[in-house]
Design a protein that fits this description.
Number of helices: 3
Distance between the termini: 44 Å
Helix content: over 70%
Shape: elongated
Number of strands: 0
Length: 101
Amino acid sequence: MNLLGDIFLLVGGAFMALGSLGLMRMPDLYNRLQAGTKAATLGTIAVLLGIGFHHPDWWTKLLVIAGFVLFTNPVGSSTIARAALKSGIEPVRGSNRKVES
């Protein structure tokens, strides 16, 4: 079980690292939100699974944490995206991408 837990911990860390890379590489706020939210949600769930395999007596607490993550991450990102759209931030479309440094 420790090997399976280690694999889930590594997968979760990899997803979070790739999500942070997506935050730096994406052209606008909306793409960055999508990359960060999906990677953070999947990475957190994988890390929680890895912790669950290392500490089987923590499963109930980890399930509650996973439920909060699965509920709050998408709601929070959609709220931020809606607020950005209402404030006038336009998404990048087509080949006229602006690369920010």
